[in-house]
Amino acid sequence: MKRYLDIVIIVLSLCFQSGWSQETQIVEDFKPSTMNQSEKQFPQVNSQRRVRASIAAPNANKVQLDIGGVKYDMRKDANGVWTGESNLQDEGFHYYQLNIDGASVPDPGSLYFYGAGRWGSGIEIPSRDQEFFELKNVPHGLVIENIYFSKLINSFRRCFIYTPAGYYENTKARYPVLYLQHGSFEDETGWSSQGKANLILDNLIASKKATPMIIVMDNGYAFKPQSNEAKEKKERPESIFEEVLITEVIPMIDAKFRTIANRENRAIAGLSMGANQTMRIMMNNLETFSYYGGFSGTANYPSTDPLDASTFLDGKYKDGSALNKKIKLFWLGLGTKEPAPFPKSVGAFRTMLEQQGIKYDYYESPETAHEWLTWRRCLYQFAFKLFK
Amino acid sequence: MKRYLDIVIIVLSLCFQSGWSQETQIVEDFKPSTMNQSEKQFPQVNSQRRVRASIAAPNANKVQLDIGGVKYDMRKDANGVWTGESNLQDEGFHYYQLNIDGASVPDPGSLYFYGAGRWGSGIEIPSRDQEFFELKNVPHGLVIENIYFSKLINSFRRCFIYTPAGYYENTKARYPVLYLQHGSFEDETGWSSQGKANLILDNLIASKKATPMIIVMDNGYAFKPQSNEAKEKKERPESIFEEVLITEVIPMIDAKFRTIANRENRAIAGLSMGANQTMRIMMNNLETFSYYGGFSGTANYPSTDPLDASTFLDGKYKDGSALNKKIKLFWLGLGTKEPAPFPKSVGAFRTMLEQQGIKYDYYESPETAHEWLTWRRCLYQFAFKLFK
């Protein structure tokens, strides 16, 4: 028996050393990332889901690849080209940067995305299920950049609008609308760029799994103009995103596009901060929306405390049976690798829903954290169920 | 007399030393560039049209600002922040980058633009006449991203489409179309980003100076698929942009949008390489287009030799009086500071037009080179005259 145990231990320790640990050997099957600029060879990704970056910096002292909160030292060759690899990354899309002698800069090889509060590099680690957001030879919808002036904010804003394939050819058809929001330190560009919302819907609609719909992606940062006095005192500006969305954006969209302008044909969803925001907007405007999607976030964030339905959001969740009649779909999603406080915070919210007898759908994205593959999957699962 | 001359010489030399020369003192009225990422303080521009860049790179040996083909050394302060200024720049938009110990990278402070064959930093030097491309509180058209599959190229391509304000509200109105092309090492994003084509048309249309029109901005790089043998031999691929535009893009646009689908309501224009391409397409397809605009380029590029109308472009310019009847507008534009061979090359072409008695409009953009302010001004002047 002792002998068998010894063998098991030896086998396990070999596994840890060779295959399971981050210290494993690097497999030399790197390919250029699909998020690279045209014809750029680096960064690359291998079958282990490592990232390899490379940059010419002949006079640098130290160059690092900065991804997933870890900085990896790169090595300099005789030509002054630095190359280095990360440990194993999760499947999906990650923001990253290079660090050259202390300067954090975008990688000149990658395309650029807005996230983490800046335009910077992004990389795609192939995922098992990526087929659902791939660019395929199916009819494609259009993504429209719409600049508008907000009287409430007294400045220009921008939203992007997805119109499904056929919108321009079927000039009589009217469509339901999903209002879809980004997360914190992101903006209105995220969902149709790294979020692949347009391709996800193109594929769903082409395979007749989703109802053709319009998607509106606005910027969730919308603040009431401040007096100079308030600015000087550095007072926190008041968010008026709900007011902007309800009184400016929705009327503009209904005037400009062939929407079906009623609550039965209007959904609202968001990720992280956007889930929090849109949950509040949903509950304050049940005459406007009948479908809700919360991806990696709920309105109790960042609290993980048990919720009291009689007081939480002014008691909006008190009457479960009334909500069950009113709301057509209340949908929540989360990645299995999300960090604190998301699992417990969303968990506390779910417990409250269950205590109130409120029906909801819950989806878990396997092996993803608080990142875009979680949200792409959430959109896919959620859009599937809308307007049916 | 000698005394007066001496004074004149002293005054002139003072002028050269203090105000006229590049060695003049730096005026400390720098402001963040309008092309910066939200809330980023650098890069900045001053009233002299100098660029000041700044980046934290505490362990770097040498950091440079690389703009207009010149690298300017930056200075390191006690906190490891490097700052430096360029000499005087032309008004308008310029691509630039930073160089950190030999690594050429985008500036993390700027927005990014596709040009010079890469996504990278751009900066805007205020111009006297910038009012014509500013974002104003006028009705705004939309910019639409359209993904399509080209059978001729056997791959996905993308074009951007500008629809004028009112297109979505006036559901019966039909519009003329301008096909507008970018230059070499640029792509389909240029005209509606650094080119400001949408804002230029918004402003022109709002002030009733231009006829409301649709603009289609495609990618001018379109090559016939090559055999593996040809690829191995590194044969130059054959451009089939004309065929893609005429047989795929125009029918797609006419099917999808409410165009007036005839030659009287179709214009074609381009900048630099795009001027060369679209001039050939215009002359090969006079049944398709009746307006032509060539910005900083003609089809004889890079030659500056005199042109023989009986042989140039297969004699397409031979019959001047027939062309004068057929073409509604033949328009050429050039910046006064354009480098060789543009002035002489365009000049040789104009001489040929004049010899053939072909009517054309000619515009010179004051104090600009082969850059986007030249092309924005050209679009403004050209669009003004279209479809009238």
Name of the CATH architecture of the largest domain in chain A: 3-Layer(aba) Sandwich
Can you tell me the CATH superfamily of the largest domain in chain A? Answer: Alpha/Beta hydrolase fold, catalytic domain
Whole-number count of domains of chain A: 2
Shape annotation of chain A: globular
CATH class of the largest domain in chain A: Alpha Beta
Straight-line distance between termini of chain A: 60 Å
Q: Which chains have the largest interface? A: A-B, 45 and 45 residues
The CATH topology of the largest domain in chain A corresponds to Rossmann fold
- Average pLDDT confidence of chain A is 94
The helix/strand series of chain A, from N terminus to C terminus, equals: HEEEEEEEEEEEEEEHEHHEHEHEHEH
| Strand-residue proportion of chain A | 25-35%
Rg of chain A, Å, rounded: 23 Å
- In what order do the strands lie side by side in the largest sheet of chain A? 12-13-15-14-16-17-18-19
Oligomerization category of the chains in this entry: homodimer
